[in-house]
Amino acid sequence: MRKTRFARYNIGQVIRHRVYAMRGVIFDVDTSFAGTDGQPVPDGTAADLVYRLFAEDDEVPYVACIAEHDLEPDDSGEPVGHPSLGAMFEIGEAGGYRRHRRALN
């Protein structure tokens, strides 16, 4: 039986990579890859969540899939300039991103 994991980061949260000059906005959390690579993560377990994000670096915007242990919060307050953000998110009061509210018929 698998142990229940809770995501450390939230949809719409701005994060950055711990090593590389990359930052982005999370749009999905994927548990299907958790622990499949068998590599231990910093807390000693073999399970890890994978986040999908609208990412950018110094050259180009792209979509990335990054393991939770490779990410950390980005508290710079700088907006993320990925062109796909507007289709899914609006900017919140605190500078973060929140999903568009959809009108229900």
TrEMBL record:
Gene3D superfamilies: Hemimethylated DNA-binding domain. SUPFAM superfamilies: YccV-like. Signal peptide: none annotated. Pfam families: YccV-like. Residues 6-100 form the Hemimethylated DNA-binding domain. Keywords: Stress response. The keyword Metal-binding does not apply. This is Heat shock protein HspQ. It comes from Bradyrhizobium campsiandrae.
